[in-house]
Amino acid sequence: MARSSTLVAALLGAFAVALVAAGALLLVQSDDDAVDEAVRGPARVDDVRPMDLDAPAPREVERRALPAPGDDAARAGVPARGELGGRIVRLADATPIAARALSVSGVRGRTDADGRFALRGVPSDARTLSLAFDDGEVLVALPADTGGRTDLRLVADTGWVLAGDVSAREGGPAREARVHVPGGASVDVDAAGRFVLRDVRPPGAPGAGGAITLLAGAPWHVAVEQAVRLSDERRVVDDLAFVLDGAGRIEGRLLLPGARDDWPSLEVAVPFRHAGASLALLPFALRASFDGDRYVLDGVPEGTYLVRATPGARGRPGERTPHDPAPLLVPWVLVVAGRTTALDLRFPAGARLTGRVRDDRGAPIVGARVRPVALLRWPAPEADAERVDLFDDLRVEVAAVDGAFEARLQLALPEAAADDAGAFDLARLPAGELLLEVDDPARAGVPPSRSSYELAEGEARDAGDLVLGAGLRLSGRLVDVFGRPLAGRVVLLPAEGAASIAAEDGLDVGVDGAFELLGLEPGARRLWAASPGHVTRVEDVRPGGAEVLLTLEEAPRLSGLVRDASSGEPLGDFTVTARSARIETRQRFDAPDGRFVFDTLDDDEYALTVSAPGYEDGVVEGVRPVLGGGADVLVELRPVR
């Protein structure tokens, strides 16, 4: 038992140090013969048990003599070095951790196919072993007497084991299927449709549970995502199932101006799927793989698509070449499950637009933003209603034009900033209709400049000077019926249609009643104004015109007194709910004298309901608000019996 006590103390000390260092370290030590053989399939976590410390001691193993340190080393406290070896298995299912790089105190090695390792020259005071994984390292605690041990059995917490089946909707396993964690581990599915993913760890602290996403796919099938919840109570999840629907392919040649080798990156994707006259977002954009001057988009669900192709920039950053191609969009590409749609993508030479941004005095505006948007149109089938879909930098709208329907796509292109001379240079622009918006981030409220151009393939055009003015001004005052200034708030609204007003909208008006709104665009607007104790008002206005005088009438008020019906004492904590044919308002009062006053927006008849803790509700019908208020309503509440 003395030997067991010593080993217990050593194990607990190493385990505590390792937990602090790595967050999840586990050590299991036993005789080499007691190491479990590699399992052939997922096992329950319950099958992995710590060593029984009261069991008979393991058989003695031959130990090699450690070289004694020299006198200088001994005096310096240099630890002895020796051999270290054993076998490492997973906590989740006790399978060996094979072909994995490891290190102990700078001494590096690798596990074999059975999870075994052997290191030489390991310091005797080493306390942790590090296993390298794609997403980081896992630390495993070592016993105190590390030097010279070759019979270690170490259990490492490398995460979870996820297993299951992948089948095709048409029946049987999906051929050549693969399951992977996006950005992490992946595994092929066997001939029976089974897969096993080991060492799966969600983002976050080592050994911590959470949610993780698996993606299963196969040639000629639609990829399927599945979220898996991981917990410490269940380290092996072996009942996952993926059913893949059949899909088609889009493939063809890439016809680029210039040499194909000049293009280090190229993206072909199908972000939209046509549904009648509209375009529906896919759960995630399908992206192509490339082989020389050919591309393949696999796993495309059956349907009609918008194909988008974007070539990467070539040359040094900012360098322009005569044949820079523009982005390409091809609508109405039909895909049938089990078949290949041939689609060659011909990239046109991009157009170029230059110009200068100036203010209304002719001075250059440094840092002005120039945002180009390509507008594409094509006929669409009959639609029941207008519909707009958004995806990344694409905006699609289906609208009626002269009795027919057309789809309009707005593609936001890379923007430019004006240099010290106010100049801008836009390249790789698609031919056709181009919308250009220019604004100055340093001058908030100044309306942007908007213009449109019709560009030909490969054309270079100078847009000239684009002028940003100061915008229009709208000023005015809030006053009461006697002409006295009022503090309050004003909000500028669209000229037509209802608009909700949020608390952060608009501009606060000070006690002088004056307000000023700058940088406005021309056109009719509505101005909403409010002041405490007064009726709100909405006025039709036009920025740039004369000063606006907004006279706010005093709001009618509901007022009264609430008291105890038995004692006649005023109640200080109560809630009043006022209802008219058009309005319902509720307000809580903390008034020691029992009085309440609050404003209304009309002089309709109201029904008042007064509630107080410990009392029955009191109701008073037919109350009309009056200007100035006053204790004109008496509400007596009876205690609850």
Outline the fold blueprint:
Elements: H1 2-22, H2 71-76, E1 81-90, E2 101-104, E3 107-110, E4 116-123, E5 128-133, E6 136-141, E7 149-156, E8 160-168, E9 178-180, E10 186-188, E11 194-200, E12 210-217, E13 224-230, E14 236-244, E15 248-255, E16 266-275, E17 278-287, E18 289-291, E19 294-300, E20 303-311, E21 328-335, E22 340-342, E23 345-346, E24 351-359, E25 369-380, E26 387-391, E27 394-401, E28 404-412, E29 416-417, E30 423-429, E31 432-439, E32 449-455, E33 460-468, E34 472-479, E35 488-493, E36 507-509, E37 514-520, E38 525-530, E39 537-541, E40 548-551, E41 557-564, E42 573-579, E43 584-590, E44 595-599, E45 606-611, E46 618-623, E47 634-637
Parallel strand pairs: 1-7, 8-14, 15-22, 15-23, 24-33, 34-40, 41-47
Antiparallel strand pairs: 1-4, 2-3, 2-5, 5-6, 8-11, 9-10, 9-12, 12-13, 15-19, 16-17, 16-20, 18-19, 20-21, 24-30, 25-28, 25-29, 25-31, 26-27, 27-28, 31-32, 34-37, 35-36, 35-38, 38-39, 41-44, 42-43, 42-45, 45-46
Structure report:
The protein is extended, with a radius of gyration of 38 Å. The protein has two helices and 47 strands. It has 641 residues and is mainly β. The strands form twelve sheets. Strands 25, 26, 27, 28, 29, 31 and 32 form a seven-stranded antiparallel sheet that branches. Strands 15, 18, 19, 22 and 23 form a five-stranded mixed sheet that branches. A four-stranded antiparallel sheet has the order 3-2-5-6.
